[in-house]
């Protein structure tokens, strides 16, 4: 059995079967009820006896539900659509029972310590911009200008699903109803703070489970509300609300997620934002220093890690990174010494 891909949101092809009504579509916080009409591969779970399922937009952390959530954001009430997408965990000609699918598998044996744990994912999962190909075998589908929706050229022509690869999923469902949520500028300060702290807590839970990409998304949602709160409360402090502290922790957590995915340039950027707010933050110094080590910017790494060690002398992670840095610098010096010796011989 091949290794599972990392769970990521995939582009989808959407065909509108029956148009909905109204001017609005669901947004963050909307409680949506959908009715599943067809699901031949039985990929959807938690359906009730009427084949209905509830999804809260912006509060989904499962790979399949995330794709459906993205589709729901484009739908109007009572709209019926047919959705095609690449299953995040299935390969062509390989069928994995739903109960056996793991959301992700994490390798905890990275040489750079706990901050650099690697996620096991298939090489093909790096291409997140792939789309379901529309070929002559599917003449009823025509790409729209957005390249994410399709419109039927002949509604009476039956859809041919026999030639679909086994990793392409097709479901048909209806958006029965959803709650109308306020725009962010319409929310009260209390509601923004509630949502910000909720998403942060969910992000921490997901991070502890190893679901780093979903944790990253939650921390991003937290920052969205925090930035809006800064406009409402320029001082950054309100009774029971430490807005600046929440923003600082978000930048630190985003940097931690980026470190897990080896996006070292982004780690430097977000750690630097944390240090602008709190120059003596040991976590930010450590993460930026560790990222500099991977980017081979050894002088900057030494400066950050040395300061982090001064702030937290007993921090073993910092000590280990300094040892890694020392080893790499020694090897680099040996290489240059050997090269110069050969040059002058």
Any overview of this molecule?
The protein is of the alpha+beta class. Among the domains are: 12-91 and 167-180, Roll (Chitinase A, domain 3), CATH 3.10.50.40; 184-312, Serine Threonine Protein Phosphatase 5, Tetratricopeptide repeat (Alpha Horseshoe), CATH 1.25.40. The chain contains eight helices and eleven strands. The protein has helices at residues 63-72, 189-208, 212-232, 243-260, 264-277, 282-294, 298-311, 316-344; strands at residues 12-18, 31-39, 52-56, 80-86, 105-107, 118-120, 141-143, 149-152, 168-178, 237-238, 241-242. It has a seven-stranded mixed beta sheet. Strands 5-6 form a two-stranded antiparallel ribbon. Strand 10 (237-238) and strand 11 form a beta hairpin. GO terms for molecular function: isomerase activity.
Task: Offer a few descriptive terms.
Chitinase A, domain 3; Serine Threonine Protein Phosphatase 5, Tetratricopeptide repeat; alpha+beta; FKBP4/5/8-like; globular; 8 helices; disordered N terminus; 345 residues; two-stranded antiparallel sheet; TPR-like_helical_dom_sf; isomerase activity; seven-stranded mixed β-sheet
């Amino acid at each position: 059995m091949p290794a599972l891909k990392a769970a990521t949101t995939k582009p989808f092809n959407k065909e509108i079967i029956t148009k909905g009504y109204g001017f609005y579509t669901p947004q963050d916080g909307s409680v949506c009820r959908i009715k599943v009409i067809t699901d031949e591969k039985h990929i959807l779970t938690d359906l009730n006896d009427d084949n209905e399922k509830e999804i809260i937009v912006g509060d989904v952390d499962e790979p399949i539900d995330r794709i459906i959530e993205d589709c729901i954001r484009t739908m109007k009430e009572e709209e019926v659509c047919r959705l095609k997408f690449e299953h995040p965990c299935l390969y062509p000609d390989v069928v994995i029972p739903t109960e056996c699918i793991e959301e992700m598998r994490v390798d905890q044996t990275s040489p750079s310590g706990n901050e650099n744990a690697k996620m096991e994912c298939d090489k093909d999962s790096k291409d997140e911009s792939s789309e379901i190909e529309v070929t002559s075998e599917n003449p009823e589908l025509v790409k729209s200008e957005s390249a994410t929706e399709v419109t039927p050229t002949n509604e009476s022509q039956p859809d041919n699903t026999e030639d679909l690869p086994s990793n392409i999923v097709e479901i048909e469902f209806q958006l029965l109803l959803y709650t109308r949520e306020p725009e962010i500028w319409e929310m009260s300060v209390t509601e923004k703070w509630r949502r910000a702290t909720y998403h942060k807590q969910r992000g921490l839970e997901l991070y502890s489970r190893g679901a780093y990409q979903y944790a990253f998304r939650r921390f991003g949602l937290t920052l969205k509300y925090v930035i809006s709160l800064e406009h409402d409360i320029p001082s950054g402090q309100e009774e029971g609300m430490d807005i600046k502290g929440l923003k600082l922790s978000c930048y630190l957590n985003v940097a931690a997620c980026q470190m897990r995915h080896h996006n070292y340039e982004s780690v430097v950027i977000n750690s630097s934002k944390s240090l602008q707010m709190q120059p003596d933050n040991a976590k930010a110094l450590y993460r930026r220093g560790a990222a500099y080590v991977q980017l081979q910017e050894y002088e900057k790494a030494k400066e950050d890690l040395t300061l982090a060690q001064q702030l937290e002398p007993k921090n073993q992670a910092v000590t280990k990174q300094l040892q890694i840095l020392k080893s790499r610098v020694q090897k680099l010096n040996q290489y240059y010494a050997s090269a110069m010796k050969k040059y002058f011989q």
